[in-house]
Amino acid sequence: MILHKPPSDREIYKAEIADYWFTDEGILVSLSKSVRRTVENISGNVALVKQLTDNKPVPLLIYLAKSPIPDKATRKLSTEKLPEIYSAMAMVSGSGLAKFIMNILFKVNSPPIPMKSFANDQDAVEWLKGFL
After folding, report:
1. What angle do CA 108, 110, 71 make, to 5 degrees?
2. For the whole model, what pTM was predicted?
3. Alpha carbons 114 and 69: distance in angstroms, whole number
4. Domain spans in the chain, listed from the N-terminal domain onward
């Protein structure tokens, strides 16, 4: 079972916009932080994820946190970098936040990787297992 807080039985990788860890299956989990995303912190985050994954895209389970809407340049960079670091993304939030984020990021074009929002992490993990 995956928790909404970092587990105590594995290494946690802390970054400005999220904390990360891996499940036993090899899914990367992200616990988002409520900070404004910028070109700088997204770039640093991409570099960290590439380091954690040996530069191979992996499935991501992300617990979303409310944060300010990023500017256009940051949204563009995020969209461009997604396929470099993630093979699929499952978003878990207690509200319509995931759909809101998808609508903002992918207003014109569809997502560059498979993305789906979930109400619970068990369903999200089951879906992500198909991308391992």
Report:
1. 55
2. 0.88
3. 22
4. 13-131
